[in-house]
Write a structure and sequence with these properties.
324 residues; alpha/beta; D-Maltodextrin-Binding Protein, domain 2; globular; 44% helix; two-stranded parallel ribbon; eight-stranded mixed beta sheet
Amino acid sequence: MHRILSVLCFWLACTFVGDAAAQEFSSKPVMVTVPFAAGGPADVIARILAHGMSKALDQQFVVENTSGAGGTIGTAKVAASLPDGHSLLLMHVSHAANVAFYPHLRYDPVKDFEPTGLVAESPMAFVARKDFPANNFKEFVAYVKANTEKMTHGFAGVGSASHLCSLLFLHAIDATVSGAPYKGTAPALNDLMGGHLDFMCDQTLNVLQPAKAGLIKAYAATTPQRLKVAADLPTVSESGLPGFQMVVWYAMYAPKGTPKPVIDRLSGALQKALQDPEVKERLAQSGAETVAPERARPEVLRAHLISEIDKWVPIIKKAGVLSQ
């Protein structure tokens, strides 16, 4: 009831003072919720953006981590927040996939949020234990298909980007392989380096350095073109699975009911931040690439989210994977 009255009062205020006042923020900080643990890629990206948007609006943006249940706890928190422009969510591709992973979500990823804009994309790569028999990606695919009952792939929890990438791969080659969920990428990668897992697919930020050090084998990147930072690493598409692509996309959302003038202002600040040379450089160093300004718009994100839900739901349902 308190939230309903607060929202009503906010809308009445907007009605009386007009659009100009609706675009004004109070002096309190804008809270950006990251529904994952501190230190991960989403957290790093959120903090870089918070800095850029603070400069763009001359308004303090503060990042808060609320992790758990594949990002759904922090996401639900933002969905229930007052829609006054002071609560934002920084979420990645799991926002679309969690519809299938979690049948009893406390929110609707489309209906309960106002899109602010796409933010960045991060490439991924297939890697395996250092003594994996295959010498290239074609041999890797053939070996996986011939030894499905003997293999285990690792991933950073149900619904994580690494989980989605493996599911997409197994769907593409029509194979079923036992999966081992971990509480984050780091422990999964440690077990891969220790030879306790056979393979995984994860963001290049996490796997390229151990691959260069010879601790694991890297087979292919999931991007349309070869990576600038690893030009000798072929793409999946050129290595036997034409059209295969998987990037981790990040986006920003506000609670449903946030007035359009406020969304427009936040989206404008986001677009300005993404064009800031410092932001672009810091995101590149983190392993992510900023999206073009025309893609960092609410309407583009809304259409993208819906298309990603349509893409992932049938793949996840076919795999028969649900949260515990």
